[in-house]
Amino acid sequence: MKHLSIAHREALTNLWLAGPATLVMTLFIFLPVAIVAILSFTDYQFGAKSFAWVGLDNYSKLFGSTLGQRAITNTLIYVAIVIPLSVGFGLVVALGLHRMMDWAPWLSHTLRTLYFLPVAATLVAMSVAWQMVLHPTLGVVNQTLAVLGGAPQDWLSDRGLVLYTLAAVGIWQTVGYNMVLFFAGLVAIPPELYDAAEVDGASGGWSRFWTVTWPMLGPTTLFVLVVTATSAFRVFETVATLTRGGPAFASDTLVYALYREGFVYFKAGYASAITMVFFAFLLALTIMQFRIVERRVHYR
Amino acid sequence: MIRRLFSRTMSTFLLLAGAAAILLPFVWMLSLAFKPRDEIFSQQIRLLPTRPEWNNFIVALTQTDVPLYLWNGFVVVTGILVFQILFGVPCAYALAQRRFKGRTLVFGLVLAALLVPFHVTAIPIFLGFAQIGILNTYSALILPFVPTAFGIFLFRQFFSQLPAELFDAARVDGLGETAIVWRIAFPLALPAATAFAIFSVTAHWNDLFWPLIATTDPHLATPPRGILYFRDQESGDDVGPLMAAAVIIIAPLVLTFLLAQRKFTQGLAAGGLKG
Q1: What share of chain B in percent tops pLDDT 90?
Q2: Residue B89 has pLDDT above 60, yes or no
Q3: Which residues in chain A land under pLDDT 50?
């Protein structure tokens, strides 16, 4: 070590500190991304000795077949339901609990804890619980419906209903998380702004909301929207636990299809194409986020 | 005055109704976990059991593999967290407090890695693990999560707020860079480390996707994978013990949340995009 120059020793130190992390990132993130991109143009199957290039066949199969289209549209429908309702309920609950802080802080605090519980609880275990809640005969939902004179429903095995049931569970799971983020945003709004708005004539609840609260929540809302969208696109646990994409692929989604084609049917090439499409959706979402941040949210 | 009272009553009522909907699956799960068999299979709605039946928990803990699942979850989650910190913290320190060639490149890689959801890398990692024959081991469950762009990012943010003089002083005292990382920088970053630990532990305790792919051996099942084995075997007869198992599996994280709410919420909020 004595003969090494200071510059060399510094370089070795840097390599020692940053090298291992860079190596594992390359090995487990960047290399796999490159491989999955290449595989998506092949007909490779797990365990096969060889493969052939098939060009865009996997992609045209995904976008051209009924099954592939269904996975994509199901995911989009799911996302389109979960985003507005989960973000909307999150905001409304946060507003209510924030106002409640003025006269019943303990109740507001307790309710915040309750709303956040689904975020902390293991989703697969809770899905097993949901399965019993929604059980056709033993579930509390159908039992209550029967008492009220309504018709019991097959929440998880009715083709027309199953996707909405999953979306409801998705909303149930994420609303508390969004509420907590909105609540933090509300607490951060300086009270002087409301006084100023009142001087300017905005005294009613609605005008206060539109002149102060909503604009000040801008950055929070954007963050919440992106987080909700990303997690909705990744929906997997509830599908795998409650429906396995069924009945008749009525609740098949992109990530579940990727799992099924890749790891149940071992079609690595086709599953890689699904992966790439899923990845493209999420990247587009991230780019959109950067664009909006640049343009609209200028008052940090 | 009356208007305010009315609006408070209305909003409280709605918030309570919402909370009831949120609580519904928890209440039903606990209720079934404490109900004796005949009450579970009765068509009458009874939200609470007439007498608590502890036997379901005893069955879940002694006659099923639930304790093994918990142990597996503990091993995997701890392994992932330890390696993430071991690899990530020195890198974050170098990025924040040292100037070197390639620093921008490494930080660029961290930012790029943040954009890649784990699902995207699953197929090649599965192929690689099959090739070297480590599927169905703890290593297969731990290794893919060792690189943590989010962790490096979080620790780097924290380290760059620390004054450079602090580290210069340590160097003058004769401390090597490795010692500086672990004896000065890391202890100071404990708040960031706690937030990161909560995020990492929650994410991997709850993960189903990768355990479903990387293991087929029930003896390696993590809690979410394990409860599905249990459910698929029991064929509708053992609802009580199944719900007891669900309660046991969610208990560690829920209790941590209830005891350390602020920390827990912060950790998950920070991890939002990588959730």
Answers
A1: 52
A2: yes
A3: 1, 297-300
| Structural domain range at position B208 | 60-274
The per-residue pLDDT for range B164-201, each reduced to its tens digit, is: 888 888 888 888 889 899 998 999 999 889 889 988 99
Residues in chain A with CB shorter than 8 Å from the CB of B253 are 120-122
Nearest to A33 among B116, B227, B272 (CB): B116
The set of residues, in sequence order, having a beta carbon less than 8 Å from that of A139 and lying 6+ positions away, is: A132, A133, A155
Within 225-284 of A, beta carbons closer than 8 Å to B belong to: 226-227, 230-231, 234, 236-237, 240-241, 255, 258-259, 262-263, 268, 271-272, 275, 278-279, 282-283
- Quote the CA–CA distance of A135 and A152 in Å, as a whole number: 10
Q: Where are the domains of chain A?
A: 1-39, 55-295
DSSP run (H or E) holding A296: none
The residue length of chain A stands at 300
Query: What architecture is the A55-295 domain classified under in CATH?
Result: Orthogonal Bundle (1.10)
Q: How many residues does chain B have?
A: 275
Q: Is the dihedral of CA B214, B219, B223, B226 positive or negative?
A: positive
